[in-house]
């Protein structure tokens, strides 16, 4: 097996949930191609992701998407130097589809493959942008499954500063959207509705900002919204006002914790990643806080906030370049501790 040429292109495969993402990243050249297939239409009639349908749709879409991405990059399979795939956390069946395809491809080509931690990949996505931030930095990871503040001393050197005690930020958006009658996926729909709402018309609590620490809790907020909605006139204008009140509460809570994390540590940069990182009001509020407090804030471009293959190819390429890869067993980790990852150099 050739693990010597680490500057060759790396194929990245993401299949942890409801998006099939494939990309090619080459150290020194950057992203060569990036393709995404979203299963939103498939899951919409059920109001959420149906794991078995997700797995089957990855099976249907992954190989054509790999071919399409390789063609877009202008590469033959023999040009690849490695394969990276999401090994967890995520839906076990969905993960297995990407892992099996990646392992089979790497075995056939006799090149190394590496299982990537989905949240590490999110965390590193802002480094795909121009003028990438250098560690140490603090990462706010806000996705459908996680809300974390992480101290990043280097690639693979992660220390959890704060975590959610119940719902993740994206989960809170999705559940709140559902109870306001909005379609799946709720986050973007709720954010769009909030844009029509009046600030301050409904004021919900900023959970856990009144006590020390960097943990989050969002499930109580959802209940407050439910009560406000049930006791309202249920007009379209009120629904938008409630959405705005909810979005402001989440954004201000996340911002308060980020400021606290930056003020307390050695890092001068905040990195924001994960699906909720695509939220416009969150981006604006964190940018204003960074200017006021004197820290730098770095975001991935919008399409790399939500799940994508580019972040997997990139994270995998970094680890393969450090000589890391595993044997050819197909292993996935539906739950996987970010702090347990090996350091890169
Ligand atoms: O990172 P991601 O694509 O998948 C996971 O790893 O979970 O994050 C998806 C989450 C969903 O909960 C979705 O509703 C939320 O990110 N999201 C948003 C926005 N775009 C996506 N939440 C608020 N505002 C948005 N603009
Ligand atoms: Zn994700």
Task: Report what the structure shows.
The mean pLDDT is 96. The longest helix has 29 residues, at 236-264. This protein starts with 9 loop residues before the first strand and ends in a 24-residue tail after the last helix. The strands form two sheets. A five-stranded mixed beta sheet has the order 3-2-1-4-5, with helices on both faces. Strands 8-7-6-9-10 form a five-stranded mixed beta sheet, sandwiched between helices. α8 (236-264) runs parallel beside α9 (280-293). It folds into two domains: 10-123 and 305-340, 2-Layer Sandwich (Nucleotidyltransferase, domain 5); 134-299, 2-Layer Sandwich (Nucleotidyltransferase, domain 5). It has ten helices and ten strands. The chain is of the alpha/beta class. α9 (280-293) links the parallel β9 (269-273) and β10 (296-298). 41% of the residues lie in helices and 18% in strands. The protein has helices at 40-44, 51-73, 92-109, 118-124, 169-179, 186-194, 219-230, 236-264, 280-293, 310-321; strands at 10-14, 19-26, 30-38, 82-88, 113-117, 137-142, 147-154, 157-163, 269-273, 296-298. 5'-O-[(R)-(carboxyoxy)(hydroxy)phosphoryl]adenosine is lined by residues 17, 143-145, 170, 173-174, 185-188, 191, 274-276, 278-279, 306-307.
């Amino acid at each position: 097996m050739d693990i010597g040429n680490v500057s060759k292109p790396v194929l990245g495969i993401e299949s942890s949930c409801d998006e099939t993402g494939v990309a090619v990243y080459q150290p020194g050249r950057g992203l060569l191609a990036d393709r995404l297939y979203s299963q939103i239409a498939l899951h919409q009639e059920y109001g959420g992701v149906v794991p078995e349908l997700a797995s089957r749709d990855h099976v249907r879409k992954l190989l054509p998407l790999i071919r399409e991405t390789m063609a877009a990059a202008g590469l033959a399979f023999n040009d690849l130097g490695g394969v990276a795939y999401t090994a967890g956390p995520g839906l076990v069946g969905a993960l297995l589809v990407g892992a099996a395809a990646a392992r089979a491809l790497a075995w056939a080509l006799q090149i190394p493959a590496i299982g990537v931690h989905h949240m590490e990949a999110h965390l590193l996505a802002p480094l795909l942008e121009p003028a990438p931030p250098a560690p140490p930095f603090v990462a706010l990871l806000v996705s459908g499954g996680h809300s974390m503040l992480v101290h990043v001393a280097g690639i693979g050197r992660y220390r959890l500063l704060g975590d959610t005690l119940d719902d993740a930020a994206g989960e809170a958006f999705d559940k709140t959207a559902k109870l306001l009658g909005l379609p799946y996926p709720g986050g973007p729909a709720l954010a769009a509705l909030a844009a029509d709402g009046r600030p301050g018309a409904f004021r919900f609590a900023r959970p856990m900002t009144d006590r020390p620490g960097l943990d989050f809790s969002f499930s109580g907020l959802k209940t407050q919204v439910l009560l406000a909605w049930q006791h309202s006139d249920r007009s379209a204008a009120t629904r938008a006002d409630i959405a705005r009140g909810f979005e402001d509460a989440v954004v201000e809570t996340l911002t308060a914790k980020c400021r606290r994390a930056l003020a307390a540590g050695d890092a001068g940069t905040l990195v924001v990643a994960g699906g909720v990182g695509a939220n416009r009001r969150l981006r604006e509020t964190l940018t204003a806080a960074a200017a006021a407090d004197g820290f730098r804030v770095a975001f991935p471009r919008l399409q790399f906030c939500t799940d994508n293959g580019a972040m997997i190819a990139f994270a995998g390429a970094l680890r393969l370049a450090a000589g890391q890869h595993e044997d050819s067993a197909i292993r996935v980790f539906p739950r996987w501790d970010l702090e347990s990852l090996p350091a890169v150099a």
